[in-house]
Amino acid sequence: MNQVKGSSGGRRSYARVGRLMAVLLIGASLAACAAATATPSPIDRPTPSTTASPTPEPAPTASPTPTPAPTPTASPTPPPRFSPTGSMTTVREFHTATLLSDGRVLIAGGRVDNDATDTASAELYDPKTGSFSPTGSMTTVREFHTATLLSDGRVLIAGGFGGGYAQSTYLASAELYDPKTGSFSPTGSMKTTRTGHTATALHDGRVLIAGGFNESASLASAELYDPKTGSFSPTGSMATTRLWHTATLLPDGRVLIAGGHDGLTPLASAELYDPKTGSFGPTGSMATSRYYSTATLLPDGRVLIAGGEDRGTYLASAELYQP
Hints:
Blueprint: H1 8-37, E1 96-99, E2 105-108, E3 122-126, E4 131-135, E5 146-149, E6 155-158, E7 161-162, H2 164-167, E8 169-170, E9 174-178, E10 183-187, E11 198-201, E12 207-210, E13 222-226, E14 231-235, E15 246-249, E16 255-258, E17 270-274, E18 279-283, E19 294-297, E20 303-306, E21 309-310, E22 313-314, E23 318-321
Antiparallel strand pairs: 1-2, 2-3, 3-4, 5-6, 6-9, 7-8, 9-10, 11-12, 12-13, 13-14, 15-16, 16-17, 17-18, 19-20, 20-23, 21-22
C-alpha cells in the first residue's frame, strides 16, 4: 500500500489499518490460546476400552435331600412276666408233663390229696386255646413215674409208685400213650420195680432207664427200652447206686448221670453211659453233693447243674459240666 505523505487522511487510514491489524492479531492470539486449551469433544476423546467383568456362573443348586422314610417303630417288648392260663381238670402233684410233637402237653398221673391217693387220669394242655381237656387214663395209678417222648410221637410211661401209702406198691409196669388215639396201652414191663429213676431217650430211639429204688434197696442197675420190640433188656450197671439223680443226653450220644443219693449219703460223683458199649464209666465229680437238682444241656454242649438238696440244706449253688 502506498503511503501518501503529508496527508492527514493518509495518516488516519494507517491508524485504522494499524488498529485493525492489532485487533486481528489479538483475535488470532486468543483463538490460538483457545485452541490450545480447548477440551476435546467426546468424539475426539479416546474411549478407554472397558473389559467387561465376567458374568458369574450361577451357584449350583443343591439337589433337594430326599426325606428318609420313617423307620417303623418296633413295639416295645413287654417285660418278662407270668400270666394265668387255664387250670387243670384235676388237682395233682408228683405227676409228669411231656411236650408232644404237635405242641400240646400231656399231664399224667400223680397224687391228688393228702391221703396219698394216686390217680391214673391224664389231660392235655393246648397252648392255642390256653386250656386243659381230659384224655384217656393210664392203665395203672402212678406217681413218681417217668414219661419220655419217643421218636414216633408216642410217650413211654414207666415205673413209679402206686396205690398210696396204704398199698406201697413199687411198679415195674410200663405203658404207651398215643396222641393220635388219645389212649394208653400196656407195653413190656421193666426187669426191676423202680421209682426215683431216670429215663432218657437216646439218639437211636431206645430209652435208658437208670437207678432209682424199690422196696428192697437203692439201685445201680439200668435197662433199655426198645420201642421196636416193646420190651426192656438189661444193660451195664452204674458204679454207684443212685436215686433222685439227673440224666442228660449229650450231643455225642452219651448220657451224663450226676449226683443223687445212694440211700444213705448225698452224692457229688458223676458217670457217663455210652450206648455204643452199653457201659458206664467215671467222669469228674461235682463241687457239691446234691439230689433233687436239675440238669440242662446248653447250646454249647455244656450242662448246667442247679440247686437241689444236700443233707437237709437247700442249695442255690450251680455248676457247669464240660464234656
